[in-house]
Amino acid sequence: MKFGPSTMLITGQAKPSKEDVISVVYESFFVSLIVDGETDIILDVTCNTIRDMTTDFIRSLIVGQNLITGIDDILRDIRCRFFGLVQKPLVVALKDAHNRYVMIKKKGIKGDF
Fold first, then answer.
1. Which pTM does this prediction carry?
2. How many CA atoms lie within 13 A of 35 on its CB side?
3. Do 12 and 93 meet the contact criterion of CB atoms below 8 Å apart?
4. CB 11 within 8 A of CB 94
5. Which CATH architecture has domain 7-105?
6. How far apart are CA 8 and CA 107, in angstroms?
7. Most confidently modeled of 14-18, 97-101, 107-111?
8. Which of 31, 83, 98, 99 is 20 to 30 A off residue 108, Cα-Cα?
């Protein structure tokens, strides 16, 4: 997949609980977002889950949402529809990615977005 010049990759991370299977494989949980810097729309998402189906479901909740104005809706959907053990780390990682994105936008990094 090719992304245009107005896109950027933003990551967020969190520490999974020791009860979560993911903690056996990974020390931290991460989410990577491809965001259009002009519209703030999330174009693609990946994360380090154990099963592809989990990542696919998370992607369905996030892609197409606005990272600036839609973060509360994204987090609400995750809390209401996603009941995987990584729910809390996913919320924390998304908040981390959101905060990074807001800081990047405020600093004016990446041109005239």
1. 0.87
2. 28
3. yes
4. no
5. Alpha-Beta Complex (3.90)
6. 14
7. 97-101
8. 31
